[in-house]
Amino acid sequence: MARTNDPLGELPLRHRLLLRLLPSHVREEHGRELRDDLAEARQSGAAVAFDILKASPAAHWDVLRQDLTLALRQMRRAPTFAAIACLTLAVGIGGNVAFFTLVDGVLLRQLPVAGADRIVDITEEHFGRNLRHFGISPANYRDVVRDTTIFQASAIFGGRSGTMRLGENRQRVSYTAVSGDFFRVFTESPIMGRVLRPDDDVAGASAILLSFDFWQGALGGDPAIIGKRIDVDGDQLHIVGVMPPNFWSQRSSPAFWRPIGFSDAEWANRGARSVQAVARLGPGVPWPGRPRSGQPSAGRSPRRTRRRTTDGASWSRRSARRV
After folding, report:
1. Which residues are CB-contacts of 237 (< 8 A; sequence separation ≥ 6)?
2. Whose C-alpha in 17, 20, 79, 278 is 20 to 30 A from the C-alpha of 242?
């Protein structure tokens, strides 16, 4: 059998493992000296181990410094190639981070609300025009919730914006207008005050429920904020509560929630699909609202029904799981 040229091969295994802490070029250059020191017991095993542990960080840093210096020299010699390589890495890493962030937020992470798997969106869709998840008109929403009993609670909501005035300062804010049962669908409790109730949802209602971020940022986290008023578009809005952090799961959190306050004429509107609808399935109702075997139907399922509008376009109503 051919003999190995490794000067450390004759050392016990524990010593060889200890010497593995040093860079390979140090072992190759000083292998015989290390072997002789250990073999002849010029130093105790503990002393040698201490010396190696002390020297290995500096030795590895020296190797890294030399590699970095060489890399910088190569980049200076070919700056275009270096820029293209760095840009390729940046685009690849950024794209992967963005993709996995989207997958985590949309597919993996559940809504930060209680019973999120029981919450569904109610939308209208038009296959002929390839319009999906198009919102819903107020009158069609009322038909859906009237014709079924599978929902424990349901509500409509829509994004709005206005100008808030704080002293001499004006700030544009986005908020969400909601119908009376919105906080029976999303059942999280506020950290201060109360949520909006059905009796708040009247025309000209002034009650608002703050988001945590808006309360902390624009209003300075005032602990005595409940009962105070803020001016939005000239309306004096009365603060009734503050929701916990991360309550809202949409792309951005609104500044506050406000009663939608539809009049009878607005509730009768079928043409404008201007609001979104959401509902919480009742206890024991399986998705998508079909009764379990041996159980009576809880009412007509809202999963998909079809109606023809006055302009001849065929729209269908659809319920889709939120998570």
Report:
1. 206, 207, 208, 229, 230, 231, 256, 258
2. 278
